[in-house]
Amino acid sequence: GARLYTVKAGEQFNLPLIAYNAYLNEEYWRVIQIYNDIADMFAVKEGMRLKIPNLALVVSALNGILSEQPTGNRIVSI
To answer: What are the two backbone dihedrals, phi and then psi, of residue 62, each rounded to the nearest 5 degrees?
Structure first.
């Protein structure tokens, strides 16, 4: 599942800050970008509504993808 998040004035154009505010980790900004089909970070404006996917589901999906790699098992930690 996902929750809706409204972009605040200071977060405009700043997906890493939005990721930090949503997940307490700015490294997940690309997850928000891909999940919302955002081609350009500069399209993120104040008042825009973004879908923020559940972090446990994101980590689970990443672990599943990485475990399919032929180079061995890698675990994504948060």
So the answer is: -65, -40
State both tokens at 26.
């700015």
pTM, full prediction: 0.76
Could you count the other beta carbons within 10 Å of the beta carbon of residue 42? 10
**15: number of Cβ within 10 Å:** 21
Q: How far is CA 29 from CA 2, 22, 65, 68, 72, in A?
A: 15, 10, 18, 23, 26
| Neighbour count for residue 27 (Cβ, 10 Å) | 11
- Give yes or no for residue 15 having a pLDDT over 70: yes
